[in-house]
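TA notes, week 10

Several of you asked for a full example with nothing omitted. So below is the full record: structure tokens for the whole chain, then the designed sequence directly under it. When grading your own attempts, check the secondary structure regions first.
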């Protein structure tokens, strides 16, 4: 199990109902608790996202390459209908 620390950077795939609108956000970990984390959007510093350990490698990634691979997997499965 991966343990994140305050000020770590992670990559969040915000999945939309329309895969074409799905995107990656850089988050800086603001809060670390026993069962959840809070990441702050690094571009606006106004949006906070809460997630748990089970979200890591599903919607939260530790490196951008893995996040991009997952994003392409999601978008590649979209046929436009």
């Amino acid at each position: 199990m991966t343990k994140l620390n305050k000020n770590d950077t992670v990559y969040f795939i915000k999945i939309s109902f329309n895969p074409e609108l799905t995107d990656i956000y850089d988050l800086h970990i603001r809060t670390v608790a026993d069962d959840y984390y809070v990441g702050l959007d690094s571009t606006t510093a106004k949006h906070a996202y809460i997630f748990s350990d089970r979200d890591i490698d599903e919607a939260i990634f530790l490196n951008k390459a893995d996040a991009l691979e997952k994003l392409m997997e999601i978008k590649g499965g979209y046929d436009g209908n």
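The first helix runs from residue 64 to 76. Use that as a sanity check on your answer.
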